[in-house]
Amino acid sequence: MAADVANLSQHERMQEVLRMLESRDSVHVTELSKVFSVSEVTVRSDLSQLARQGLVARVRGGVRALERNQSELGFDLRLRLEVERKQAIARAAAAMVEEGEAIALDSSTTAYYLALELRTKKELVVVTNGLLIAAALADAPGISVLVTGGMLRLPAMSLVGDLGADALRTTRISKGFMGARGLSIDLGLMDLNPDEVRIKKEMASVCERVICIVDGSKWHRTALLPFVDTDRLDTIVTDTSAPAEQVEAWRARGVEIVCVDPIEGARPAAPADLRRLSAR
After folding, report:
1. Which residues contact 57 (CB under 8 A, 6 or more apart)?
2. In this structure, are strands 56-59 and 62-65 parallel, antiparallel, or unpaired?
3. Among 249, 245, 244, 217, CA closest to 233
């Protein structure tokens, strides 16, 4: 491993630490110093940065992976957060979709609400790596659903990995709608899980237009891994709680920003029942 990860930047070292924690409970300063061929002081600085971003937990001599309920809430629970904002964003995003188009939806909860808004569209092709998003559209008469292959990630109910990436490389899509964990004017759209980031990158690469769908809370967050560069992003659909200064900064970079008012009294949707659909 050391030969592969020597001479990395801080960002690359931090990304490698997260990859290591995908299959291990913890990593330690002494080990990482040898692996990366850097001082223990440098390693501690990297780990402190990861901890400040809420991506790892510090322990004596190193860091450990966060528990699942600390690092990534389950899809059903996330679906119940910021409901009014997500549904308003979904409605505005659905208005951008023309009948007869081919579009992509990632596995975000805002994309799930968008899927519900799209159910009445005609002659629409939807490509997604989200199982619950596919299920939400499965019985919509005017919509054909293409699900990418890959490994199941339970927290997001998504499919990730090489099979999904290979399928996307042979596809051409007019618009891609994607959520994000955070936004960076310098790095673009950001997320946490390396596998999710990879499939999002592949999805964005085959879309003529990339549209970010994020509520106002995401503007105040950061993440480690970028998946769409700022200059590649066409539009951000968000709500009126997005910080005005950041909105104007993105507009100055040529990104269209659509701000919508939250829907009062909106109620969370229940995820589609995969067992019910498979029984048909």
Report:
1. 51, 63, 64, 65, 66, 70
2. antiparallel
3. 249
Per-domain residue ranges of the chain: 2-68, 75-278
Nearest to 214 by CA among 234, 236, 246: 236
CA dihedral for 99, 209, 238, 127, sign (positive or negative): positive
What is the per-residue pLDDT across 25-42, written as a single tens digit (0 to 9) for each? 789 999 999 999 999 999
Q: Look up residue 73 and give its two tokens.
A: 């809430």
Instruction: Give CATH for domain 75-278.
Output: 3.40.50.1360
Q: Indicate the pTM of the whole model.
A: 0.74
pLDDT in tens, 67-100: 544 445 567 767 777 889 999 999 999 999 999 9
CB 150 within 8 A of CB 126: no
Q: pLDDT class for 1, splitting at 50, 70, 90? A: very low
**Beta-carbon neighbour count of residue 181 at 10 Å?**
21
What dotted CATH number matches 2-68? 1.10.10.10
* 179: its two tokens: 């959520």
- What does 104-160 look like in DSSP terms, one character per residue? EE-S-HHHHHHHHHTTT-SSEEEEESBHHHHHHHTT-TTEEEEE--SEEETTTTEEE
Q: Give me 110's structure tokens.
A: 């805002």
Averaged pLDDT for residues 248-277: 83
Under 8 Å between Cβ of 216 and 239: yes
Are the beta carbons of 55 and 18 closer than 8 angstroms?
A: yes
Supply φ then ψ for residue 86, to 5 degrees: -65, -40
Beta bridge partners of 63: 27, 58
Burial class (CB in 10 A: 0-12, 13-18, 19+), 36: buried
Considering only CA atoms, which of 236, 227, 217 is closest in space to residue 196? 227
